[in-house]
Records
---
Amino acid sequence: MLRLLTAGESHGQALVVVLEGLPAGLEITVEDIQAEMGRRRLGYGRGPRQRFEVDELVLLGGVRHGRTLGSPLAIEIRNTEWFRSDRWHEEMSPAPGETKEPLTQVRPGHADLAGMQKYGFTDARDVLERASARETAARVAAGAVAKRLLSHLGVEVISHVIQMGSARVPAESSRPTPGDLDVVDESPVRCFDPAAAEAMIAEVKAAAKDGDSLGGVVEVLAFGVPVGLGSHVHWDRKLDGLIAQALMSIQAVKGVEIGDGFEVAGRRGSAAHDPIRWTDDRYERLSTLAGGLEGGITNGELLVARAAMKPLATLNVPTLETVDTATKESAVSFKERTDVTAVPAMGVVAETMVALVLADEAQRKFGGDSLSEFVRNAEAASAALLEQDV
Ligand code: EPS
């Protein structure tokens, strides 16, 4: 229904986003998209590039007078670094006859070696330029549009960091609501619990001092999700499966959890499920262990998904043993400029991926060529829910 394509290399001229399947009439401004992209750049532990790279946006197509036309939306995000100096021109497209020194001391944990073997490259840069998390800037631009569409259904998607290194938000700590998003974004580690945030900052400082990197876990929360997105009828229509795929596709994510998935696995069944109660005119779950999804279908409760990011494979002081692919001799990996951690930024990307999946499924369920038709259909579905015999 909603198809997203991204193109572009980390140090190339630009990233390009194409989003196909949006209804006509959705209001879109460069400022809105830019604001969302600005949130992704936040976060303690980011490297120097975040300070000088500006996400310069151009709406290339699909919008007229600030509203979508129903045609593919195309956005260009200029890599301002490309225009700032000649370094990346030379690195990415050397003059005819000119060769660049290849990167051959591959980084363990990065796509370098597997990508070189797969595509037959002798220079890791041919892999890393696309494997880089710079590409998530393109996803966030598309996610801003998906969020805008969802806002017309009253759906809001936020995130917060719940673990960085070994510092973790206590289980009993309260979750942020959409009204708290500014507070989360103002935290240098995008953590809602002030004490845990302090501990996280201390961990980032310590890792930075050692030239090391840190991973962590973010929690995505979607409020106001209607009942009935996704389906139990077939494996590839289960919404939890689609969310897991979308989150797992984020660079450096190695684990995904829906609700309290891993913790619940160790409980007895009698303590592992959300009790159901009828309250006035709706069914209510008394807890959020299932993360708002049962049988791959949204149940109208808070949707909760978590993504675990491994520590970045690029270290400022490289210590991991590897092999130089040119000589086959033992080496330490090459060093690119890098972040100590990108977990706070990953939270914004994770929101984006969940929003894209929800927007896609909402369009599948409610349909509509124009925004007003989409909203009318969604309202009719929610009214019909109240009339059911269920
Ligand atoms: C990245 C390494 C860093 C990050 C980059 C992702 O880039 P550089 O090596 O050029 O400093 O800044 O992320 C972004 C540019 C971004 O916008 O998120 C990597 O290795 O994936």
---
Amino acid sequence: MSRVVCPGSFDPVTNGHLDIVGRAASLYDEVFVAVLINPSKHGLFTVDERVEMLREVTAKYGNVRIDRFAGLLVDYCSANGITAIIKGLRAVSDFEYELQMAQMNYRLAKIETLFMTTNPQYSFLSSSLIKDVAKYGGDVSGLVPDVVQDRLRDRLVQR
Ligand code: PNS
């Protein structure tokens, strides 16, 4: 069985992430979407909230599993029988850091990293940019799932 992981912060999930997850789900038997638990970084959404949103928006895929992890990604992969990491590449600017991580992960545990080119419709998207635009009342419809848009509105109004 081919089992891969799409790791990330997903604070929050965007349509760009979802595009990659959906395409990975059509190529592999099982796709784990793993949210990093990073105690040193305070996100807009808690890890539980990010997991909830991801579960909701990937419910239509029978072979996508939402999970969370702490520590090294390669240890998470080894513990779950995952043989490859899937990453989306938006632009050349992503490449240097991604290449470094891919080579380190291979060096650590011989885990392969496979890069998928982002759908050009979403190549300018990032969770940080979405939060910034939403914070100042900009329109993020079509860039994040509706449930995320609602949660962004609620969260930013509370602040
Ligand atoms: O969505 P992000 O924040 O760009 O995702 C980065 C992520 C979670 C993939 C990366 O930070 C990661 O794998 N962190 C886990 C810790 C780890 O394994 N570090 C060594 C990477 S070579």
